[in-house]
Specification:
heterodimer, A: mainly beta, eight-stranded antiparallel beta barrel, disordered N terminus, B: alpha+beta, six-stranded antiparallel sheet, five-stranded antiparallel sheet, about 30% strand, globular
Amino acid sequence: MTKNRQGADSTGIDMSMKKTIAIVIFSFCLALTFMHGRAEARESDPFKLPQVGVWFGPITPVYETRKEVDTALGGGAFVRVNLGQSPFKLGMDGSYQKYKSKSLNEVKLVPLYGSILYRLPFSSLLVFQLKLGAGGSYIKAFPINKSQWDPLFVGGGEMSFPLGATAAIGLRVEYLMLYEKHISGAKKNGNFVNTGLSINFNLDMFD
Amino acid sequence: MKIQKTILIASALGVFIFSGCGDTPIFDMLANANFKVVLKGTYESNAPRSWIPYAADGSMNDDAVSLIPGNFALQANSDSSSNHYLNPSVYNSLPSNFYLDIAEMTIDGEKFAPFRRVYRSSVSDADPFFDGTGFEYKNDNVVSGRSYDTLQIYVRKMIFDNAQSFNATTGIFEKDLQSLFDESTINGYDINPDQSLAIYDTLRKEKDTTNRIFPLEVPISGGLVFDGKKDYIIETRMVVKNFLRRYEKLYIVGSAYSSHHFWGLSDWSHEVRANDVYIGGNVLSVARAYTPGETADIIGSVPGPDTYVIAIPSTDEIASYKLDSLIVRPDDNYYALAPVAAGTDIASNLEYFVSNQKYMDFYASYVMNVNKADDLGLLSYHDVWTVHETSRESLKIPLLATWSTGGRYTLTNVSPGTYKIYYSNLPVSAGSLPVSFATSSSGPDVVVLASDAGSTVTKNLLP
């Protein structure tokens, strides 16, 4: 059996794929930064104000990854801004996750990613959002004593309940994939599901 | 603008992160441990000796089988039309199956294999556990860059079938003994609870912490330094094949006395005598590590057929691999069994009370000497048993061994290093291991170089 133990060199094709994806994300973010609504419009819907929040809850390895490590508790923080009067938000998330197992296997993750959220267009007391994102995650694994950054893709959803004009609590579920199959010899990605309770505060940045 | 700057910075950060990705398949490495444990039930590391057939003369019955001797058991249950018929062909045979239940394994105390596994091996030359192949035990990774010396195997059950219960007074065959294994009831007797040293472990002050089977401490011969880059195989051998004895144990429930006959590992190392409750200290084991693809075979001629050939590290002495036959289980007048009342009449009870008082007086003075160092006198216990136990604990199983027939031998998967090769062509009966070794007239040393990997190194054993 061939084992990749020394680490594989990235091929030319992998590098250009990385660059392409990086440029796409950067351009998308750049375009969106010039889209901002008026302060007066935001005030009528507090949910459209910039938000900062934290979340905490069970983090679960899924698919093949669940054979290596066990469910744990994790938490993180996020910031979001609305894109003008559109139902879209742009966000940045970060968290710390540590997974253990019955054996010596242990994985620590620090996912950092940008995301775009879409508020579902039906009116109710609750706010439902779908989320897609991408970025990178620092991963450190024991006892193999390897650490690196991996590309990260995220998809999920949130349900929020406003607490007046200043805050909201919510439930969030998101699937994280640490993409390693682009590495020569790799057959597995890292698959995790984060769930949790969140609380965010609306920031009125425009007086 | 403030927000725009923030988002731009965040985006740039994301780009930076994404562009600097690693090139190590971490999840593949976590899933595919490059460290495998292979379990074998043989003294030999390859080409084990065939199973020695059951001896009709009853020599495979330990001398502990005294209450209901084998011949008497067969004689008392020879009527095939009775409901207690004991089939001689079944009784006069080796067990058919060996069952092994392992809770987990650790290495130097690290939980690298917290997985319960159960195995059923047929007592035949074709079973992987007994044919030199072995079976893999599921495990995860160990720590890179660390050295390891000992494997701990947490054995839950070891069961041999072909076990019977007899009425201790009449010898009438009562039933086949049964045990629970893998949540099912099977025919067989679990010898795991008996893995204590008769009258030694139970009388020592550290008896509550003495456990010889949970875990079973297996030394890794030559040690292991795990670099995390290469594949390693830990070949772990428990001596089971051709190392069996039939034992007897008195089993008392209320006023019912039964004699249990069962198969267990030979008392070649720690002698078991009649009326001993335990048969422990006889699970002999060794482990060694090697990297596939970086090994060679040692081949050569041996002076005669039916020869054991072993290889030991050059830094070891052969004396460590031989049983010191001069040190035997100390002769003692220890009463293994407390007296019991023979009946319910007054005379029987009076006899019991007197015998029991004598037993308690003897036992009290005996126990006083158990943990006393520099113990002298007729009831000496500590020193003689310590000498005996020390000699047995220092006994090693060779890291490489094979059985040779036809005048040629092969030792496979030999890691680079310097070894001493010995051979033993004296007869070795079932339930025994070689006690005398000779070396080649050209000396015992053989060197396997790293450049010999994939090829053979010749060492003819000339008398």
